[in-house]
Amino acid sequence: MSRMTLAQQLTASLAARIDDGTYRVGDRLPSLRECMRLLGHSKNTVITAYEALASQGLVEARHGQGFFVKQGTSGHYEPEEPPPYARAMDTIWLMRQQFVREPGHSPLGEGFPPVEWLMDMRLDKFTRQIMRMGVTTLFRYGNRLGNASLRQHLVQKLASYAISANPRQIVTTHGANHGLDLIIRRFLASGDTVLVEDPGYYPLFGKLQLQGARMLSVPRLPDGPDLDALEAHLRLHKPKLFFLQSVGHNPTGSDISPGKAHRLVQLAQEHDFILVDDDALADFKPAAAIRVSALDQLKRSLYVGSFSKSVSAALRVGFIAGNKEVIDELGDLKMLLHTSSSELCERTVDVVLMEGHFLRHLIRLQERVKSATAAGLEMLDEMGAEVFCRPEQSLYLWARFPHFDDARELTRLLLPKGFMIAPGHIFSPEQSRINPWTRLNVAYLNDPVFKSTLQQ
Question: What is the pTM of this model?
Answer without folding.
Answer: 0.81
